[in-house]
Amino acid sequence: MQVDKLIKTIGADFFTGVPDSQLKPLCSYLLNKYGIDANHHIIAANEGNCVALAAGYHLATGRIPVVYLQNSGEGNIINPVASLLNEKVYAIPTIFIVGWRGEPGIHDEPQHIYQGEITLKLLEDMDIAAFVIDKDTTDVEISDIMEKYNVLLSKGKSVAFVVRKNALSYDEKTIYRNNNTLIREEIITHIVNCSMTDPIISTTGKTSRELFEVREQSGQEHKYDFLTVGSMGHTSSIALGVAINTPNQKVWCIDGDGSAIMHMGAMAVIGSTAPKNLVHIVINNEAHESVGGMPTVATKIDLCKIAEACGYVNVLFADNMDDLDKVLNMAKHSDVLTFIEIKSAIGSRENLGRPTQSTLENKNNFMQYLRTVK
Question: What confidence category does residue 176 fall into, taking pLDDT thresholds of 50, 70 and 90?
């Protein structure tokens, strides 16, 4: 169905969310209609953050907010839904629009399979009524369900629309770009060349896919890399756990701006722990590229100053190839906790592949390799 008709029927004018490829028509519609506007549309750090923003909006206006998210973000909303929104607490009504990745019977990536199986169950457990939208859903059906939903919302309950693959459509195109010149896959190639046989933990999405491709193209083994295909925002914490327990081995973390921002508290923990062997790299393309390209707040914040304030000892920056090689070399030979922000363009190869190893193979090979370098 057309996304503008869905939004018109819902009747809301405040939206907050974390972008999702399944919801790209909705994301594009909101960006074209509102842009990033504190009064109407905020792309938040994580899904729990969205729920809290939505609650504040309702408290101040009495109106119904909309939170959009990929179903992988349901875990992040459980706490604020159960202890803030629920009718037994503050009874704050919210409409959720959830992209259904990993729907049973639909082929998807491994990190989405179990999440897809429990998507509706989690909503049910949170006492959130759910209606599934597919490509054949009619405007009349949405209108009818909203009549029922409005009764629930008036009682302080929350409701959800769960969106199947290709269920929403939007005719206008949205182009995402920035002014950065470095290409992420080239950046990763230079990191691999510098790190050599050091372990690398890479963030979810295209970063891990490109790391796998770089190893394939150079004929290198994949045992050096742990590809964090899910659990967005937690890559740096995984890397911290590895670094602490392999103190004599340099450990590299390739993070993204969206991931780093999603659970930024991890940087405070890393800085306070300060493992001398950890290099935390954030490739900042100022976008949630792997799920469509919508902007992050990394366009307006200084990640290097944040890292410095969190206690990272060595803080470096690069936005061109010469500086990139210099800062990577400095990190390689440094014996203190290091942070590197690298500015990157948005975009990837159209023929970018996906890892051909299973997630269990990746884990087992990586663990076996770590045992040899302790």
Answer: confident
The residue type found at 173 is K
pTM (two decimals): 0.95
- What is the strand order of the sheet 200-202 is part of? 225-227, 200-202, 251-256, 278-284, 338-343, 314-318
Residue 193 CA, distance from chain mean position:
27
- DSSP per-residue codes, 252-288: EEEEEHHHHHHTTHHHHHHHHH--TTEEEEEEE-SEE
Helices 206-218 and 184-195, axial angle in degrees (round to 10): 60
Mean per-residue pLDDT for 279-304?
94
Residues 85-97, mean pLDDT to the nearest whole number: 98
Residue 112: count other Cβ atoms within 10 Å of its Cβ. 22
Q: How far apart are CA 172 and CA 105, in angstroms?
A: 30
Q: Report whether pLDDT(309) > 80.
A: yes
Dist. CA 180–CA 20, nearest whole Å: 23
Q: How many helices (H) and strands (E) does the chain have?
A: 14, 14
